[in-house]
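U., I forgot to send this yesterday:
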Amino acid sequence: MTLTNRDLVELTAWRRQLHQHPEISNEEERTAKEVVDFLADTGPDEVLTGLGGHGVAAVYESGKAGPTVLFRSELDALPIHELSDAPHSSLVPGKSHMCGHDGHTAILAALGRQLGRERPARGRVVLMFQPAEETGNGAAGVVADPRFGAIAPDFAFSLHNLPGVPLGEVRLKPGVVNCASRGMRIVLEGKTAHSSMPETGVSPMMAISQLMPALPALGRGTFADDEFSMVTVTHVEMGEAVFGIAPGHAEIWATLRTRRDDRMANLCAAAEALVTRIAAEHRLSPRYDYHEVFVASVNAPEAVEHLRRALDEEGVSHGEENLPMRASEDFGVFGHKAASAMFFLGAGERHPALHNPDYDFPDDLIPIGSKVFMRTVRNLLG
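Result:
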């Protein structure tokens, strides 16, 4: 079962429509409705909405015993103003699909069209359109939803487009493919004072000046090492934007990154101890909290072999170059529930990078991604 030329025209038009109407993490209500409406003609046996927020799961049953195979895409866009002259560029100021989730969604919709014409021979397929990937709470919210238990997969697969890799080529390997990461927000409280009498206050200035180099210095190892860890300071704010007040409040934000989940706990403990020590030296009250928590994405060898077989049978070139990546991806959460694997589909060696304001998903990837997924369905559930 392959996509027709008409299918590709309609899927491309729909992808571009999604591109024009981006919704950022946890706001994907319209996008979710678009998915439900688009899949209606494919006749899914069950459609779950509102999963973990605005998630949509479309279930295609065979009526016979067999594994449950889940394929996942993302619904959310980014808070980035698009800089493009494409006729389908974002109509929403300050928001855009600069990561290609509109294209990933179109690939899953293409799979839905094929399943509507030819159900799996056994088991069932779940198309999971997940919200809030960019903030790291989407997959966790879906898995925590009580209704997820009814569609719990045996296998879970996903893809992500990857600029810098030749168009249509795939990168795939077992083991870690994306790092664990989390944002750490550190707040330091002292005492404000008039700027003519700073000695009467407690300023966080010296503590901030120490933490800015000390936090990155917590990083260990090289990226090729499983013990790798990295800290990147991303934001600093101190006091008010005035000349008459010596500051008594400051914030410093940092992203903590490791290849392994167990290493993350050690890195958090080291960062917290550092903050506590430096704050005490300067008579400051510290507190910290964590945001955008991503677990490591780890490809199960068994799931990787299913994808490799599908790639070979469909004649799609693949290798292990460029992996693993420092960037994070919340698909790793599904790996705690099923044998899972993600592959990376080349968007072109000179294609604008992900999250760049001039990025746009290459529509030529829609038939490539969907045929690899469909071949995986046939091999697992044929």
